[in-house]
Amino acid sequence: MLEAVLPFPHIDPVLLHIWGPIAIRWYALAYIAGLALGWWMILRMLHTPSLWTNPPFNGRPPATDDDVGDLFVWATLGVIIGGRIGWVLLYGIILCSVSPDGGFCQGGAGLPMDFLYHPIRIVAAWDGGMSFHGGALGVIAAIVLFARRRKLALLQIGDLVCAVQPIGQFFGRIANFINGELWGKPSDVPWAMVFPQAPGHMPRHPSQLYEAALEGILLFAILQIGIRVFRWQDRPGLTSGVFLIGYAVLRYFVEFFREPDAPFLAGVSMGQALSILFLIGGGVVLWVALRAPRAQTAA
Fold first, then answer.
1. Cβ–Cβ under 8 Å, residues 175 and 27
2. Over the stretch 203-218, which tens digit does the pLDDT of each residue have?
3. Using alpha carbons only, what angle is made at residue 118 by residues 12 and 260, rounded to the nearest 5 degrees?
4. What CA–CA distance (Å, rounded) separates 207 from 177?
């Protein structure tokens, strides 16, 4: 057996036990930190006048502080509801159906039929089980509904959210690492680790950290440079398109080192198949952004 060079840091997934089943978990704190810092970052952007001097803004930011506060309530509901529904459908039903013995089933053996016998498991997100792609679709739906309700420009609001989303991605993957879940494939790289819950007790890629670095730090830096240096915000939808494409490419790449999903189609994992759909969607958004004529500064 290969020996891991780096020991896995055994951190209790529960930060604080309050009473009985009530506890504060690192995973919940990751969601809170991602949303709170994302909210703060958008407010910082809105309060930076130089970002909104050119058309189509002409000195007026695309949203107010109150808009952003209300938007994050909608986005929070979208990410929780969408993330859970996505996990139940994609992983709890589809993957568990093709792997009834629990080999690839993230929810363990017994699913999906256990959803019928114990319906509480459908909503039991506190036991684990959230899908990024489902959460992303939930947030997209929330943005669309919110923009229509407030009569705000959809692409401009979407760009704001996409510009800060990698913050949440970073904290979420760090929480996955603390929980010892979504581990990578067996490897002999010097930084491989033995995850206690992984089968075989073999050293594996810490793929959660790869995602935190690529889909979190790297993607955030790309988007912020694009906005602050290349002024992507002047073409509404450009930031959103780059985010969707960037996430899809990086997630597809990391899937080569990550092992929880069963082969979905011709050796393509569920995560890779969904990333292809996000890549197509990002291409459409990018085409819309670049197709629109750039607004000209008034003489």
1. yes
2. 999 999 999 999 999 9
3. 50
4. 8
